[in-house]
Amino acid sequence: MATTAAPYGGRVVKLAGNRPNPLGNSLYPIASNYGTSIYFGQPVVFASSGVQVPAFADLNTGSAASGTYGLYLGIFMGCTYTDPNLKYTVFRQFYPASTVASDIQAYVMDDPNAIIQIQANAANFNVWSNLGTNYALSAASGGSATTGNSNLSLDTGTGAATATNPFKVVGIAQGPDNINASGYVDVLVQARSGLHIFNRA
Questions:
Q1: Which of 84, 100, 136, 148 has its CA 20 to 30 A from that of 165?
Q2: Mean pLDDT (whole number) for 153-171
Q3: Residue of 59, 176, 169 lying closest to 125 (CA atoms)
């Protein structure tokens, strides 16, 4: 919880069933010269060319080429590639847009059962009154090139039972200063049923 908005994207804190997060990330390609930066904590999708940011903050529609939440993969945790200027392998907190390299790989926490901590974008959000409700994010993508971190948050104005919203509220993050309906609450969410690419037909 914070008295002011300080969004940080999504943080995988555990797995469903209160199982600990094993910190296991999988490697997936990012296309050379992909034109959008991808920041630590950004939910990502898998399109035919590799990992991308989604085209929308809320919708679960479209094809692989559009990069929407219909192909949700997980949370971006950094990347590695051969830097075109330094000529050696680097590990980055975020992927800088339009990087040209033939070996760009994203680290993604891709477990469909991941429980994700994210800050609400409005003050005094009541988690318990909205348990089980689906929400969109504040934007499709965004972050800081200085920190490398995402600046996405949970858009509390989008709550609905609709299947087009990607993330379901499942609890409140544990912490002495994180108080329900007080300040900018840190919320626990999970990809709603059937959203993850591993769970689709």
A1: 148
A2: 87
A3: 169
